[in-house]
From TrEMBL:
Protein name: Choloylglycine hydrolase/NAAA C-terminal domain-containing protein
Top-level taxon of origin: Bacteria
Species this chain originates from: Thomasclavelia ramosa DSM 1402
Residue stretches making up the Choloylglycine hydrolase/NAAA C-terminal domain: 2-51
InterPro entries assigned: CBAH/NAAA_C, Ntn_hydrolases_N
Cross-referenced SUPFAM superfamilies: N-terminal nucleophile aminohydrolases (Ntn hydrolases)
Pfam families: CBAH
Record keywords, A-Z: Hydrolase
Entry keyword annotation includes Hydrolase: yes
GO MF term set: hydrolase activity
Amino acid sequence: METVSIPKGVVITANQTSDYTQYTMFINLATREYYFKTYWNNQITRVEFPQYDEKDMKMLSLGPLNQTIEFKTRSIFL
């Protein structure tokens, strides 16, 4: 999902703070899906955006970014 990212502590600014990649995301425009993961949680989260009328546009919450990481498995046997 990420080609380039900056780990925390590798780049120190003039203000003595760290520059680092806080989140990575991509959007599938064909399906209106937004995928992201954060520095604090490597689990990829998917958000679907339904069709909408531009007159009804409003701010949407994606939920808290600090979520519990879940280990998910799938059976390859049917």
